[in-house]
TrEMBL record:
Annotated ranges, domain START-like: 8-136
Lineage, uppermost ranks: Bacteria, Pseudomonadati, Bacteroidota, Cytophagia, Cytophagales
One matching Pfam family: START_2
Protein name per UniProt: START-like domain-containing protein
Domain of life: Bacteria
InterPro entries: START-like_dom_sf (IPR023393), START_2 (IPR045736)
TM spans (from-to): none
Organism: Hymenobacter frigidus
Signal peptide per UniProt: none
Length: 137
């Protein structure tokens, strides 16, 4: 989970096949109510394009910096004053479909610091398992 700090950052990328259409999946990736069902303890709209991700009763504000309906969304995390910062942590979800097999893939890009790659893999596998339970895929 992308939390703001000043340590060395890494770009962690992982893909998961999910048995659900992008139209069904996208609200779980791009809305506060959808994200709160699988991603963290709670997500609330703060104002405009800002969301408050809540983990362990701690607030982490992010801005929706890019979104393509039923395709991709990017959240850029803000500092404690809710301002954008250089080299900010971000989280990006992209949905890709195979024209040949009709499979849908969720690609996660987690740009943050302080994570071991094996730990991140395990964390995302657990989170995506929760997502699959929600969408039936």
């Amino acid at each position: 989970m992308a939390l703001p700090d000043t340590q060395t950052k890494t770009r962690f990328v992982v893909e998961f096949p999910i048995n659900a259409s992008p139209k069904i999946l996208f609200p779980y990736l791009a809305t506060a109510s959808g994200l709160s069902q699988w991603f963290c303890d709670d997500v609330r709209y703060a104002d405009g394009h800002h969301l408050n991700f809540i983990w362990d009763q701690e607030n982490h504000f992010a801005e929706i910096s890019g979104q393509r309906l039923n395709r991709a969304v990017r959240f850029v995390f803000l500092n404690e004053q809710r301002q954008t910062v250089a080299d900010a942590n971000f989280l990006e979800f992209t949905l890709d479909s195979s024209q040949v097999t009709d499979e849908v893939y969720l690609r996660v890009v987690d740009y943050s610091s302080g994570h071991d790659a094996a730990e991140q893999q395990e964390m995302w596998e657990s989170l995506v398992a929760k997502l699959r339970e929600q969408v039936g895929g």
